[in-house]
Every structure is written in C-alpha cells, then in structure tokens.
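Appendix B.2, paired examples.
Example (i):
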Amino acid sequence: MKKQEFKKGEIIIYQNPQGFEIQVKLEQDSVWLNSHLIAKLFNVNRPAIVKHINNIYKAGELDKKLTCSVLEQVAADEKIRKMNLYNLDMIISVGYRVNSKQATQFRIWATKILKEHLVKGYTLNDKRLLQFQIHLKELQEAISFLQEKSKYKLLAGQEQEILYLLSNYSKTLTLLEQYDKEKLSLIKKTKGKFILKYDETKKIIDEIKKELIAKKEASELFGQENNNKFKGILGNIYQTFGNKELYSSLEEKAAHLLYFGIKDHPFVDGNKRISSFLFIYFLDRNNYLYKYSGEKKINDNALTSLALLIAISNPDEKNKLIKIITNLLIT
C-alpha cells in the first residue's frame, strides 16, 4: 500500500474529555509541539517538560536530530528567535514520564487516533464532517429547487436566467475543499452602514411611480401601501432581540428585503418591481452591488428570475430562497 503523503502544516485537533483543546501540527509524517504546548497538554509546568526532554536525550532513548526541529520566527521585538519543536515520539515519551491524568488521556488518544492518521492517512473529525455534510445537503436542495421551479409556467422564457442562477450558485461547490480545510467561512457577516429608512424609501417609490406613469408602465395603484405592511417589513429587517439584530449581516437584510417585499404583498401593485429596485438600491448604497471584476453580483435578468421564483414559491421554501440569495451575494 502506497504511503499517504501529507501536506505540510496540516492541523489536527486534540481535545480531551474535559474540553481542553490543542492544535497539533502535522509535518514530515509526524506531529510537532514546542515545550510550552507540551506543558499545557500534560497540565504541568514547562521546566518539568524541559527536564524530561533533556534526560531522554542524555539517556539516548531518542535521537535529537530525528525528534527535534528548529523553527525560526520573528518575535515581538522584530528579532529572529529560534524555537525547538518536538515530534510525536518525544511527546509520547515525555507523556510516559509525566504523572498526570491529562498525560494518560493524551497517550490513549495518540495511540488510537494519531497513529491511525499517520498510517491510514485520515482522521475523522465528527464536527467538521457534519458541517461538510450539512452544507452539501443545502447546496443539493438549492440546486434541486431551481431545477424544479424552472419548469413553472410563469417562468417560461426564463430558462437562461435560471441556468445563470444555477451556475453561479453551484460555484460554491468549488469552495467545499477550502471549507473542509477551514480556510473559508461560508456564512459571511458583512456589516452594512447604510440603513433603509421608511420615509426616505417612500419618497424613492414615489419617484419610481412618476417615471413609470409617464412611460405608461404603471397606474395610480403602483406603490400604494397596504395597511403599513411595508413599514412593518422594514421594521422586521432591523428587528433586534436582546440588543442583537435578528438579521445581523448585510446579505441577510438584502435577501429578506427582497423576499418579504414580494411575498408579503405590501403594495396594491408593483411589489416585484419595487422590491427588486430597493434590493439593488440597498446593495448599491452599501457598496456591495458589484464584484471586484465590476460585474453585478446578480444581473438584471437573474434578478427578474429571482423575483418570479419568490412569487411562485411556497412559504415553507423561504429558507431555501434566502440561502440562495445570500450565497449569490458572497460569490
């Protein structure tokens, strides 16, 4: 069987039953810790660890050249300092000399888990595996949702735009490897500075109405509010609980603004057009409408399709749509 090759600097997490956690560095087919971390690992003082290490070398139990690696790093005073890192053989040897409960727990873990990782090439981290599975399931559900809705009569002629949404959303598949390596946070919490205020927003809607009436593309019913419903939607978007915002990120606020503005029918006429415009306006005022390339994160045709998807969706599909919108905004 071909020996598993490990990537330099890969991190394994050790956690004992009491909840103590430490990151173990995997390099050169072993794990490496400095004396400070070994002391913390076994719940003893560092001088005791240094003493044990020196005694192990003096007794010739381990070869220093094979078990000790020198790491150079820049200290706070900007001078280069050298730090000794010790491999798994030394860590376990010290652990047998240290008389502590944590040392015993680590020996058990190292024997059963770390050796399995080094020999077979993997360690199952239940928490990360579960997160991976949950995200993959959500992604599959979103793709299935878009494929199903694309067959709806109201969306006839929107096939290209649905494909655009599907393509952009499925790009997150390429992020799974980064996610698995803990290089990416899939739930982005962008903070927006611009706040949509009810009175100012009503003025904007009135201006849109004037332009559309002049073009004979709207009637006097356009933008006429139903029982302060739109005011309630803005209140919900900025709602707080225990001094914390219910929708804390810019992406969440924008997604819920679009969804509620269409689904809750706050206006007698023009719900999709008004909500789509305010969605774009809100992102633009927060400098979040465009990608770094200069391209809109969600182009006009795709936004039309999103609005129709929201309009024909069932209430229990809300979370799927919110996830689709927020993911499109962070790609």
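Example (ii):
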Amino acid sequence: MKSAFQTEPSHRHGRAPAGPTVGVLLCNLGTPDEPTAPALRRYLAEFLGDRRVVEIPRLVWLPILHGIILRTRPAKSAAKYASIWMPEGSPLMVWTVRQARLLLGQLGERGHRVVVREAMRYGNPGIPRVLDEMKAAGVQRILVLPLYPQYSATTTASVQDAVHQWAQRVRGVPELRFVNRYHDHPAYIESLARSVLDHWQREGRPDKLVMSFHGVPKRTLLLGDPYHCECLKTARLLAERLHLRPEQWAATFQSRFGRAEWLQPYTEPTLVAMAREGVERVDVMCPGFTGDCLETLEEIAQEARDAFLQAGGKAFHYIPCLNDRPEWIGALSEVAAQHLAGWPTTSTGPDAISLQQQRERALALGAPD
C-alpha cells in the first residue's frame, strides 16, 4: 500500500549528522522565472490563486482569474518586469539570494553554526522543495524568517500555510519556529534610517519624505489584520529617528488591484496632490520591501516618478530598499539570533553551558558517562 507521506531521507541510526542541524529559511514573496508572458501566467496563477491573497469566494473568483486576468495581464506585466530585469535575473531573486548568503556569514561571525536557505512563496525555488533539501541535509530544527517586517495574513500567514502544507506530507517533521514580525525592531528601524541619511548626505534633503507600503484591501483591516497599524508604527518610529516634523513626512499605500477600497492614502494620488500644492522635491522609500522588486523599481521609481513630475513637481528621488546594506544584514541577523535562542547552534556560550549542566546532572543521578 502506498504511503501517504514522502519517503524519508536515508538515515543511519546512532550516527550524528555531519553538518549543522539548525536551519534558517529566508522567505520572500516570489518572482517569475523570466520576463515573458508564459512565465508571468504561471506565476500569477499561483499568486492570485492563494486564498490568503484574494478572499473572494472561489466560485466567483476563479472564473475571473482564469477567464480574464490570466488572459490579459501576463503580457503587460512581462513588459514591466523586462524594464527592471537585471543581468543576473529578477531583482527580487538577486537580492534575496545575496541576503541569504550574507546572513549566513553574519550569523557565523556571531558563532552560530546553521544552514541558511532562501525560498519563494510563489515561483522558484518553492518552499516545499527547499524544505525537502534542508531535511535531506540533516537539518532538524528550522526557523522560518519571512522578509516581511510587517505581519499580514496575505503574506506572513501565507508562508506559514505553505510550511504547514509541506509538513502534512512529511513523516519526520522538524521542529519549527516562525518569525511573525519585526516592524518595530530597533535594528530594523536603524537600518532604514541609515539608508535615508546616507542618501541625504549625497543628495541633500527633500521637502517631503514619503514612505510607501504595499497596499491591501481595507476589508482586511476591518477583519482584524494588524498590517495597517504595523506599517504606521514603522513610519512613525522612522520619522522620530530622523527627527522629522509631521509636515515633513507621509505614509502611503501602493499597488491597488481591483475596484474595492484599499488602505489609504494611496501613493500616486498623494504624490500628484503634493506636486499641485507646490511641493517641489519628494524622496520616496518603501520600508515594507526589504529588497528592490517590480513594485519599487517600476511602480515607484518609474510610474510614480512620472506622475509627480507631470503634475508639476521639480525633483523626485527614489531611495533604494535595504537590499544588501550591512546595517540591514546586521539587523536581520539580530532578529534571527533572538529567535534561535535555546537551539544548539553554538559550541560556546549559553547553549554549551546548558548542555554541560545537563551532563553533570545526569552523572549525579548515576547515568553512565
């Protein structure tokens, strides 16, 4: 009879794993494999087919998705992706891979012996595939660390869904921990502040700093999703760190989709209104995105820029995402290290002391050495 579970990796009883047994799974949203309509069709079908992303009843939504959206949107989206595609590939993938490699190095410098792998919620490399690879490598404890500083059911919870769905097909499930949020973590706020201050040192200060976050339907806020509040707290803490007065900054929401009301104020209309009111220069950043992607490089640095300048604005500066900035990698390692606490990742320090104490207690009770 066929088992309901996947075949377990080969294992020799009594033999300790050769490599680290603790891993960090760094998760991002996802990206198409290439900037073409077929690739976008596959990616959007998975992304927009997620119940966490679109909560419309399936009988209503799926005919719209497959009958209209996936027939018309992929070609338009592919052209947008082509305008920001890097020689190494999709910007989101490039930055996520670099962040994973740098995080591994940073944790290593802190004394943590771990495996760090990157995965995408939608597209490749998918979360199930990477979890399989980590498990096959002997990883027994996994910290799932989404690259979403602010919690939302549409993003953070969706990553958890993918992990739990994988676990339902596995006989030997590793210990799992999830990082839900770090929107107000001091090191994260400081890394954002340093990126702004470095930009201002080179380019001077704007009339207004706009912090644009990815939008979600207003309905999610009314149903209890904390995302809106966490975005506003990030913006407030960053403004305080930069010593900005209320009139010197604004928090907005971008990437509307469909006809329903989304979180407001909307980014592009706000920028147009500022230009018409006489604001000459704006600097725009996207604190909710930890790596540059379509929504920052095309929607903000291209479309929003054009809208502001056409409305009468004189200068538009886009401040890049945190990407591979040292302060950000340091912040990410702090978040990871805090959530790894208690797991055997170090050969010295609190973990080693705890293990030695356990050994001494066992000997005192008469257990064999």
